[in-house]
């Protein structure tokens, strides 16, 4: 008998194609899409960091698993952001956070909605979990098409709405007034949905929606190989 792996793996997982982004090279010297810095660390900073990291590593209890709740990291981030540590979840990159959110709302016929084009992992993650992904096209100016967004929220009644702020790949910030209208619509007026604001590219914009996301019906995140407020 031959074992057929394709009979075991869910069809929606088999239909996925891998996410890929072009690596930096001579034609792509400034790589902005992963929120990395194009500038390497200066020698003095690198040497100082190497000493600090070596010391910190020497103190790590390698015979134990690390703290799964990442308490110390969450406390440091919470102090930096002026929120409570309980409000913070530390994940291995935002893709893990996106998947956790989608897993939390997943169920038969459940929809996830986002304006498109946007970060493709919202859609890939949704398909992997058998969720319906509803993409609402941006206007030709890359703005949120509010009549279309409102209509889709009412029609599709998503449980999760993603907004990348700034958006990838268009690079712009959606109007805060439009974002606030979506937040209100998702509070029960058009649908009941968690609004997930992705501030992965906060460092390019220097602006945040955090103070406007206090309703409990929204969450946000940042990411990157480094952290600054
Ligand atoms: C808007 C947006 N969010 C999140 C990510 C992924 O972040 P991470 O590397 O932390 O998984 C990307 C990467 O391209 C992105 O463009």
Topology (SSEs and partners):
Elements: H1 11-14, H2 43-58, H3 71-81, H4 93-105, E1 111-116, H5 121-128, E2 132-137, H6 146-156, E3 160-164, H7 176-185, E4 194-198, H8 202-205, E5 218-221
Parallel strand pairs: 1-2, 1-3, 3-4, 4-5
This protein binds pyridoxal-5'-phosphate (PLP).
Pyridoxal-5'-phosphate binds at residues 33-34, 93-95, 119, 164, 168, 198, 200, 223.
What is the molecular shape? globular
Q: How much strand?
A: 5-15%
Radius of gyration: 20 Å
The SSE string, one letter per element, is: HHHHEHEHEHEHE
Q: Biggest sheet, strands in spatial order?
A: 2-1-3-4-5
Structural class: alpha/beta
Which small compounds were modeled alongside the protein?
Answer: pyridoxal-5'-phosphate
Mean pLDDT: 90
Number-wise, the strands total: 5
- State the helix count: 8
Major sheet: 5 strands, parallel
- Fraction of residues in H or I helices: 25-40%
Q: Separation of termini?
A: 58 Å
Low-confidence stretches: none
């Amino acid at each position: 008998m031959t074992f057929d792996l394709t009979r075991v793996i869910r069809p929606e997982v088999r239909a996925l194609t891998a996410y890929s982004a072009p690596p930096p090279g001579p034609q792509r010297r400034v790589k902005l899409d992963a929120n990395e810095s194009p500038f390497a660390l200066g020698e003095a900073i690198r040497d100082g960091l190497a000493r600090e990291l070596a010391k910190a590593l020497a103190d790590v209890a390698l015979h134990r698993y690390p703290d799964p709740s990442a308490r110390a990291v969450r406390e440091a981030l919470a102090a930096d952001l002026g929120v409570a540590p309980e409000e913070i979840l530390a994940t291995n990159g935002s893709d893990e956070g996106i998947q956790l959110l989608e897993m939390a709302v997943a169920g038969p016929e459940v929809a996830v909605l986002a304006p498109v084009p946007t970060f493709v992992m919202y859609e890939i993650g949704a398909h992997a979990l058998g969720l319906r992904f509803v993409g609402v096209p941006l206007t030709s100016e890359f703005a949120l098409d509010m009549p279309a967004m409102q209509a889709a929220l009412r029609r599709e009644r998503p449980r999760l709405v993603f907004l990348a702020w700034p958006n990838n790949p268009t690079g712009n910030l959606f109007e805060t007034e439009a974002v606030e209208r979506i937040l209100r619509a998702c509070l029960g007026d058009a649908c009941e949905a968690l609004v997930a604001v992705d501030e992965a590219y906060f460092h390019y914009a220097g602006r945040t929606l955090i103070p406007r996301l206090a309703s409990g019906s929204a969450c946000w995140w940042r990411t990157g190989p480094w952290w600054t407020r």
